[in-house]
UniProtKB/TrEMBL annotation:
CDD domains: NTP_transferase_like_1. SUPFAM superfamilies: Nucleotide-diphospho-sugar transferases (SSF53448). Gene3D superfamilies: Spore Coat Polysaccharide Biosynthesis Protein SpsA, Chain A (3.90.550.10). Transmembrane segments: none annotated. InterPro entries: GlmU-like, MurU, NTP_transferase_dom, Nucleotide-diphossugar_trans. Residues 2-114 form the Nucleotidyl transferase domain. Pfam families: NTP_transferase. The keyword Ribosomal protein does not apply. The lineage of its organism: Bacteria, Pseudomonadati, Pseudomonadota, Gammaproteobacteria, Oceanospirillales. Keywords: Nucleotidyltransferase, Transferase. This is Nucleotidyltransferase family protein. It comes from the Bacteria.
Length: 227
């Protein structure tokens, strides 16, 4: 299975930190945010990773190269201007192929990755859902017996981590468009499964959340026993 990391955003909520540094390269506890994703994908057995880039694309490409230093093969999908989540994925489909792929938002931090086998039957997506953070208290979706819906309670927050079948985007007009409406249509059609992850997850969307995550990681590293 291949994976895709969404990394083409402008990082407006992260300003002024992103005025000269793209969000995927912002350092957290000594390494770029995107490095955590790459390391986890490699640990999960992923070998090929597609990354879409737009804002300060050359900085990201120069920092990560072909992925060899992470034990991966990185394939770049360049966007002249950001195509949003759906448009970015659609443009990258020739690099991803016809099989389901892991999709990770570049601006989240999480140790969870769904199993490739999570997408079954004629489902179009499998979503990782997490407890609602204080900045998104109403959540996004419900889940019952492993099926994602828009009606049940309690509602949970989409973690920005999923397994996607390319057919989810089939036939959409090229250009900039969001993924969320396509997911909601698939949910209403009963073609989206999900799982509730209760571990550590952070939407690293603001300087304050980035600083809080860095403090947490530093604190955790101080409690790791040495051999």
């Amino acid at each position: 299975m291949k994976a895709m990391i969404l990394a083409a955003g402008l990082g407006k909520r992260m300003r002024p930190l992103t005025d000269h540094c793209p969000k995927p390269l912002l350092p957290i506890a000594g390494k770029p945010l995107i490095a955590y994703h790459l390391e986890r994908l490699r640990s999960a057995g992923i070998q090929d990773v597609v990354i879409n880039v737009s804002y300060r694309a050359e900085q990201i490409i120069a920092a990560l190269g072909d992925g060899d230093s992470y034990g991966l093969r990185i394939h770049w999908s360049r966007e002249t201007s950001p195509l949003e989540t759906g448009g970015g994925i659609q443009q990258a489909l020739p690099l991803l192929g016809e099989a389901p792929f892991l999709l990770v938002n570049g601006d989240v931090w999480c140790e969870a990755l769904p199993r490739p086998q999570a997408l079954k039957g004629n489902d179009l997506a499998h979503l990782v859902l997490v407890d609602n953070p204080t900045h998104h208290i109403d959540g996004d979706f419900g889940i019952l017996a492993g099926r994602v819906n828009q009606t049940s309670h309690p509602r949970l927050t989409f973690a920005g981590i999923s397994v996607i079948h390319p057919a989810l985007l089939a036939g959409h007009v090229p250009g900039a468009f969001a993924l969320a409406p396509l997911l909601k249509d698939a949910i209403n059609g009963g073609r989206v499964s999900g799982e509730h992850y209760t571990g550590h997850w952070v939407d690293v969307g603001t300087p304050e959340r980035l600083a809080a995550l860095e403090n947490q990681l530093h604190a955790a590293s101080r409690h790791i026993p040495t051999s």
